From TrEMBL:
One of its GO terms (molecular function) is structural molecule activity. Pfam families: Phage_T4_gp19 (PF06841). It comes from the Bacteria. This is Phage tail protein. The lineage of its organism: Bacteria, Pseudomonadati, Pseudomonadota, Gammaproteobacteria, Methylococcales. NCBIfam families: conserved hypothetical phage tail region protein (TIGR02241).
Length: 164
């Protein structure tokens, strides 16, 4: 039974299968699990047009669609050095490392899926040609026992709702 409105606490994030030439079955499960997703939305930018001789108002015309960055947060993912030969980062973390340390970008599509009870997909949003623009690790504090959080932001070309 679908909850109306649905809860926002069961979701997954799927990065395109072409990241680094990795096929879909090789994508790591921890690269799909995030504790928070934000930035799903858009707005219409308005253009102002002054009409000659009209001083009481300005015409406002729709110009283009604008998007916020897609923001993803998760616990810091560490891969033991001997667990997987030749891989010291998860593929998504490597996407950010390459962008921030080498200015190498590999834009990919990202799918955010909202799940209902029993993990049944209820809604989804696709983000086209997403690429890293900000990466931050939570603060370390000796008096706090908080989990270290990866804060990742992606810019993208366009987004749309996917019919489920």
């Amino acid at each position: 039974m679908v909850q109306v409105p649905p809860l926002a606490n069961q979701f997954s994030v799927v990065f395109c299968p072409r990241i680094f030439g990795i096929n879909l079955p090789d994508i790591f499960p921890w690269d799909m699990a995030f504790q928070k997703v934000a930035g799903i939305g858009s707005s219409i930018a308005m253009r102002k047009f002054n009409e000659g001789g009209e001083n009481l108002f300005v015409h406002r015309l729709p110009d283009r669609v604008e998007y916020e960055n897609l923001v993803l947060e998760r616990g810091l993912v560490l891969i033991p050095s001997k667990a997987i030969i030749g891989l010291s980062f998860s593929p998504v973390t490597k996407l950010f490392v390459d962008a921030m340390e080498k200015m190498e970008f590999d834009p990919c599509d990202v799918l955010v899926i909202l799940h209902g009870t029993e993990f049944i997909p209820l809604a989804a949003w696709k983000f086209r040609n997403a690429f890293p623009v900000k990466w931050k690790i939570s603060d370390f504090n000796a008096s706090d026992e908080a989990i270290v959080v990866d804060h990742m932001e992606l810019a993208f070309q366009t987004m749309w709702s996917v019919r489920i």
